[in-house]
Amino acid sequence: MLARDFAGVLSAAASGDELAFARLWRDVHPALLRYLRVLTKDETVAEDVAAEVWVDVTRRLGSFTGDESAFRGWLFTLARRRAIDAWRAAQRARVHLTGDDADLDRAGGLDTAGSALERMTTQQALALIATLPMDQAEAITLRVIAGLDVKDVARLLGKRPGAVRVAAHRGLRTLAARLSAPHPRHPAQRR
Amino acid sequence: MTNDPEQHGEHSLDEVTAERLLRGMRPSSGATAGEQALGDLLAAASAPPSARELSGETRAVAAFNASRSATTGPRHGRHAIRRHRPAMRPRVSHGVAAAAALGALTIGGVAAAAYTGSLPTSIQRLAHDHLGAPHPSQPKTTALKAQSSQPRSPSLAEGSDDQGGHAAPPGLSVVTPHPMSSADGQQGTTDSQNAQGDQDQLCTAYAHARVQGDQHAADTALRKLEKAAGGPQNVLAYCARVWGSGAPTLNPEPHDSTHPEHPPLTSVPANPQGQQSG
């Protein structure tokens, strides 16, 4: 979060200052990407959607007013709509992702050996969260990764704060149950 | 561990701890192993950005400049950009439907389009020169490959202007890689679910070992996982698909608001590229 700097950075970016925009981007993009990864379950799609979101943001930056958490709420709302659009377009096209295996591999690949394990952890964590029912996954992601509070998340999702709280807690319980059980009982340990 | 993974919903996680975790705090010192692991998981999910996540900054800034000059700059020169509709327009209108069918992802601007490699070659080359987007000679196929024959459904024509009323689809991922392998597919869903469980388990075992900090178990699990996935470079895509494919979640309750138009995640079988080797 940019905290005290936010207002200045925002207005500079709105008037075309690319350094200010870069600061905004650096501050929000990783969380945006992770949210979209959970939502779309596909890194390539997440990156594509994120790029669209930033174009949206750029276009409308001048008309945005509000503080930093309002900005994040706004940006993640744009992201959510874009992701849903992408999902609908994909549904329309009856898409099979498997036609592009190589592309998927590249998208998810461990291309940088040095940071591979670190990224693996984050990616695995996101993948695990993404296995939750979507309302739970979103509630958790928006709170923990995007750093939004219950009220902001509720507004973004069009739900009551109580429903968001319940969804998030329920999701956490499921995750905790999963993590507590490496389930060695399964016969799959074949080599 | 005292918790049976199948006892979903019964797992104890008190409200205070849950709220701590959701605020990005660590569990308190008396937390159970499950809560600690959960804290680790969330810490990993919100870890500082990786170099890769920040690697798009230059392009993003270039797109920022391009987009600004497209919307506020002189009207001559950038014909390609001017083809695009204003951002506020409903997504699926005449003409746009065709674009959506071809490009799969709806394109919000030339910069975003250039990233996805979905522009015509000449424009793509231009974008490459000016925005640093991929060169047309090495097009990056969009993951969502469209089949242009799909007609526009009127029910989808409402487009994107609705608020969050339409919750995100339960699985935005379109692929559902049920491993209905020809080898053991005779038993239909039962075997299929077992195989799915195997794959799910490989990924989960690895994740579990990682968050527990058990390097040895993690290495072992990763080796198995790499083998199953068909190579280290396939591991993430493999797990993303296994996990994202409707692998049985522990909490089968429906969403708060149901959306009958979004089917459950089990409709389209497809083969993960890393077949079970056993």
Topology:
The complex is a heterodimer of chains A (191) and B (278).
Chain A: H1 6-14, H2 18-40, H3 43-60, H4 68-93, H5 101-108, H6 116-130, H7 134-145, H8 150-157, H9 161-180
Helix pairs in contact in A: 1-2, 2-3, 2-4, 2-6, 2-7, 3-4, 4-8, 7-9, 8-9
Chain B: H1 15-22, H2 33-45, H3 57-72, H4 79-82, H5 96-103, H6 110-116, H7 121-131, H8 189-212, H9 215-229, H10 235-243
Structure in words:
The complex is a heterodimer of chains A (191) and B (278). Mean pLDDT of chain A is 84; it is low at 95-120 and 184-191. Chain A starts with 5 loop residues before the first helix and ends in an 11-residue tail after the last helix. In chain A, α2 (18-40) crosses α4 (68-93) and α2 crosses α6 (116-130). In chain A, 73% of the residues lie in helices and 0% in strands. Chain A has helices at 6-14, 18-40, 43-60, 68-93, 101-108, 116-130, 134-145, 150-157, 161-180. Chain A is an all-alpha fold. The radius of gyration of chain A is 18 Å and the shape is globular. Chain B has 278 residues and is an all-alpha fold. Chain B is 41% helix and 0% strand. Chain B has helices at residues 15-22, 33-45, 57-72, 79-82, 96-103, 110-116, 121-131, 189-212, 215-229, 235-243. Chain B is flat and about 55 Å long. Mean pLDDT of chain B is 54; it is low at 1-10, 74-134, 136-168, 170-190 and 244-278. Chains A and B meet through α2, α3, α4, α5 and α6 of A and α1, α2, α3, α5 and α6 of B.
Number of DSSP strand runs of chain B: 0
In angstroms, what separates the terminal alpha carbons of chain A?
Answer: 46 Å
Order of helices and strands of chain B: HHHHHHHHHH
Beta percentage of chain A is under 5%
Biggest interface pair, residues each? A-B, 115 and 130 residues
The count of DSSP E runs of length 2 or more, i.e. the number of strands of chain A, is: 0
State the assembly state of the protein chains. heterodimer
Helix content of chain B: 40-55%
Number of distinct helices of chain A: 9
Mean pLDDT of chain B: 54
Largest sheet of chain B: none
Mean pLDDT of chain A: 84
Radius of gyration of chain A: 18 Å
Uncertain segments of chain A are: 95-120, 184-191
